[in-house]
Amino acid sequence: MKKIFIVALLIGVFLNPFIALAEFAPASDRNLILTDGTAEVIGANDSVRISISVVTQGRDLKMVNSANMNITDKVLLAVKLLNIERLAIKTIDFRVTPQKDYKAKPPKITGYEVHNGIAVILENFEPDQLSIHASTIIAKALENGANNIHSIKFYIKNRTLLENKALAHATEQAVLRAETLAKAAGVKLKQIVSLSSYPVRKRPMPNMLRSAGIQAKTEAIAPPMEPGESRIQAQVSLAYEIE
Mind listing the pLDDT tens digit for each residue in 70-111? Predict the structure, then answer.
């Protein structure tokens, strides 16, 4: 009797996993319809980041650096005195580069270039107001000694609402496709067994001006700014069990 009992127990142990697998079949063993959906939402840019720099050159490093500091302080003060609400300024780059005569053996240092870069940031503005502020900041910076505008990047500060909207539209599209496929195939949809999203981060449009585009040699007047729009995309994939 003990041998029979042990054999029966062992059979039960080996069979239990197969019984469990039969009750809970993985998604790959089910009859499924797989679909996806994509959506794009467009929103007006409400923020801008302007990269400005002061570049000075000369033979004596101390004099070049001192001149750079004086001009940079003048630019910062001029921008701050605009008294624009929620304006933020921070240093983003500072470097000193020796200028060398490579024809000499060994190469000889002939002077220095001091580069001081700052970023001016405005966020959560109406497009028209943002355009005016950006143009005014650039004009003031150039008028007071800044000699390079490296980039002007417009963007949306809070993308969450638009991303959620894009995800909702993409999901609706995926469900509609599944319903269309099921109707055409003569089957019924039971339940969603898998749903995943893939936010698509598109590279920003070249909504910027490079240093070659604006270089101050005389009294500068900034061009009008157009904040433009940003496009936010989302992709959704789902699997429907069918019968």
Answer: 999 999 999 999 999 999 999 999 999 999 988 888 889 999
- Domains with residue ranges and CATH for the chain: 44-157+203-228 (3.30.70.2970)
C-alpha pair distances (Å), 108 with each of 61, 159, 207, 243: 15, 52, 41, 81
Check pLDDT > 90 for residue 12: no
Give the pTM: 0.73
Query: Quick one: angle between helices 61-80 and 127-143, nearest 10?
Result: 150
CB 238 within 8 A of CB 194: yes
**Separation between Cα atoms, residue 137 and residue 143, nearest integer Å:** 10
- Nearest-angstrom CA–CA distance, 184 and 179: 9
- The pLDDT score that the predictor gives to residue 47 is 97
Contacts of 129 (CB under 8 A, 6+ apart): none
